[in-house]
Amino acid sequence: MQCIAVINQKGGVGKTTTTVNLSAALAQMGYRVLMLDMDPQANLTVHVDKRPDLESHTMTSLLVEDEPLADLVQPTATERLFVVPSDTSLAGVEQVLANRIGRETILREALEAFPQAQEFDFVLFDCPPSLGVLSANALVAADRVLIPMQAQYLSLQGMAKLVEVIQLVQKRLNPALQIGCVLPCMVDARTNLSTEVLREIDTHFGPLLARSRIRNNVKLAEAPSFGRTIFEHAADSNGARDYEAFAAEFAAMVGAAPPREAVAAPVTAPAPEAAAAEDLPAEEPVPAEPAVDALPQDGTQSGTGSDDAAYEAGA
Fold first, then answer.
1. Nearest in space to 123 (alpha carbons), one of 102, 134, 138, 133
2. Most C-beta atoms within 10 A of its C-beta, which of 143, 193, 260, 263?
3. Which residues of 258-288 are buried (b: 16+ CB within 10 A; e: fewer)?
4. What's the rounded Cα separation, in Å, for the pair 113 and 132?
């Protein structure tokens, strides 16, 4: 079982969209995947057609009431894909746990005591857009970090702080933690800005930068409103093809074993003629460029916006 923290303290960069659709793509490849919604906004919970206001067994139950993880896992409409939902009460966890010794290790201990742990190939944590106790729990429990980044200048700000926090967790709480991948999201290949930002990310992270690109895609923005993954909502869209390609690349990057359950047919089929009507902008390959100056090291921008809202703005 590999535990992946999907994190970036800036909001609106594609964390929830990536967590849901990467998990769904891995599940359709034959892997068994568990998603944990660590964000009080509960966007991931809504994305898989759950009602946060009606859920009584959530991440709050685990972190505050020490309820076993096995009692919180729920199936989704996608085969082999499961979720532990969130609700707004998770926002108060920081204050409740303020004086609790070992509060950063609660999630790791819950996973160690999870009797069905070996039944899952991947566990993905959808982290909030902050670096508080919720994100700390995810980083302490994780094997690797996946960092979605919007291909815009402001997304570069605060990356130095995030890397600093990851290194601090490595030093004090989780020596095995490593950055697994940086994923460019909402890429507009027609603009010089996207190209320049990708060059700066490549300069700083090198081989950790994913070769896959998640393009601006209106279907990715629509899917959460229907409570569906992109593969349920529009399996022939560029958004589905992008996440399918990234799932294959990511599984190879982390050295995942072959899936336990073989899947005969591919998740999506090529449909290039639909690109102009569906994508904003129309698909174009991201050109390779030589490296330029290193990533800025002095910004600490953070945010609290919804990850899916930026897709809607781009669409």
1. 138
2. 143
3. ebeeeeeeebbeeeeeebeebbbbebeebee
4. 24
The CATH code of the domain at 2-314 is 3.40.50.300
> What pLDDT band is residue 277 in, cutting at 50, 70 and 90?
very low
How far apart are the C-alpha atoms of 235 and 21, rounded to whole Å?
A: 11
Identify the weakest region by mean pLDDT among 27-36, 204-213, 256-265, 289-298: 289-298
CA distance 19 to 220: 12
pLDDT value for 259: 82
Query: Given the DSSP bridges, would you call strands 33-37 and 122-126 parallel, antiparallel or unpaired?
Result: parallel
Neighbours of 183 (CB within 10 A): 29
pTM, full prediction: 0.81
From CA 219, how far away is CA 239, in angstroms rounded?
7
**What order of strands is seen across the sheet that includes strand 144-150?**
74-75, 81-84, 33-37, 122-126, 2-6, 144-150, 178-185
- One-letter identity of residue 34: L
In this prediction, residue 19 carries a pLDDT of 96
196 torsion bin: left (phi>0), alpha (psi -120 to 50), beta (else) = alpha
Q: Domain extents for the chain?
A: 2-314
**C-alpha distances in angstroms, 129 versus 10, 63, 82, 152, 208?**
5, 18, 23, 17, 21
